[in-house]
Amino acid sequence: MSTFLWYIPNTVEPGHRGDSAVEGYGTLEHSVDLARTAEQHGWEGALIGTGWGRPDTFTVATAIAARTTTFRPLAAIRPGYWQPAHFASAAATLDHLSGGRLLVNIVSGQDNLAAYGDTEGDQAQRYARTREFLQIVRRLWTVERVTFAGDHFQVTDSTLPLRPAVAPRLYFGGASAAAERVSATDADVQLFWGEPLEGIAERIERLRTLSASLGRELPPLEYGLRITTVVRDTSDQAWRDAEARVAAMASQPVHEQLRGPAVGQQRLLDLAARGDVLDSCLYTAPGRYGGGGAGTTWLVGSADEVAAALRRYADLGITHFVLSDTPYKRETARVGDALIARLAATAVSASP
């Protein structure tokens, strides 16, 4: 069974990825309105991003959960911001208070380390620390009296006063070899950005092989897709809107290509050299003009065309979809109404 999640921006300034919302932006009422719109239009929940300089993600997720009924916050957190026992307790508490609705996205990419006092080292150390973090958190959610002595974290005779009835799902991203080894052994869901089908298939096969060779002890790793979707009534309208948006991005007087050490981001940027459109409707041009992360590549087309593209990812083993487009509120409703029923109907008809 597939999970369909949306995205709620978590920034101080409005205008994230072209969002038009200004009045009330950043207030609890604005974020709750987006979450309730997601509830009303078929989304199970939404990703809430993290990064130094943004409002605290876990506080935002807690406030939204208190004002919604079915909405599941996928709260992004960074091990460098938390000690694992502290996070395990905070997450268990929110999961308990929300009736088991919390989802967690572990982010290990580089951030402004000096600003929040982190001292992590190179990539290998960063992911080794993340793995210890995941192991301690999971054990504290499931076991009494945890003692763990790692290279990065230690706890002694630690027991949470409140443990979740069912541990929150741990989503994780990253395309480097170090990141994939963490996913293969310690994550519940590996999130991919919008690569062509061939690349996703190759990565899934590699992760399955790694899980077996590294002796994964958890249930099989699941897979998710985080991508922008430009959905309109017709294909022509969708492509006109997408191309106009990219033209506006290209006209900006200062344009910086988002290149750096992140392996996953570099994979997306390199796609543009293969063509502006890959597979059936994967648009790579946004990455050439400043699109980053989930905004680097877009699925563009009519509802039937984008749904068909997402089904092809599902055929590879993707069961978690984290979609978005702007303006956020309008597209929460539009994309939810256009895609979720189509995709759910396909899943039901394909069931034995």
What does this structure look like?
This protein has 352 residues and is α/β, with parallel strands linked by helices. Helix content is 42%, strand content 18%. It has 11 helices and 13 strands. The strands form 2 sheets. It has an 8-stranded parallel barrel with strand order 1-2-3-4-7-8-9-13, surrounded by 5 helices. Helix 6 links the parallel strand 7 and strand 8. Helix 5 packs parallel to helix 6 and helix 6 packs across helix 7. The longest helix has 23 residues. It starts with a strand and ends with a helix.
Give the class from helix and strand content and strand pairing.
alpha/beta
Instruction: Provide the residue-averaged pLDDT.
Output: 92
Globular, elongated, flat, extended or rod-shaped: what is the shape?
Answer: globular
Radius of gyration: 20 Å
Biggest sheet strand line-up: 1-2-3-4-7-8-9-13
Terminal Cα span: 13 Å
Biggest pleated-sheet summary? 8 strands, parallel, barrel
Model regions low in confidence, pLDDT < 50 over at least 5 residues:
348-352
Number of strands: 13
Number of separate helices? 11
Helical residue percent band: 40-55%
Strand content: 15-25%
**What are the secondary-structure elements, in order, as H or E?**
EHEHEHEHHEEEHEHEHHEEEHEH
In short:
This protein is an alpha/beta fold. It contains eleven helices and 13 strands. Strands 1-2-3-4-7-8-9-13 form an eight-stranded parallel beta barrel, surrounded by five helices.
Features of the shown structure:
352 residues; alpha/beta; 8-stranded parallel beta barrel; 13 strands; disordered C terminus
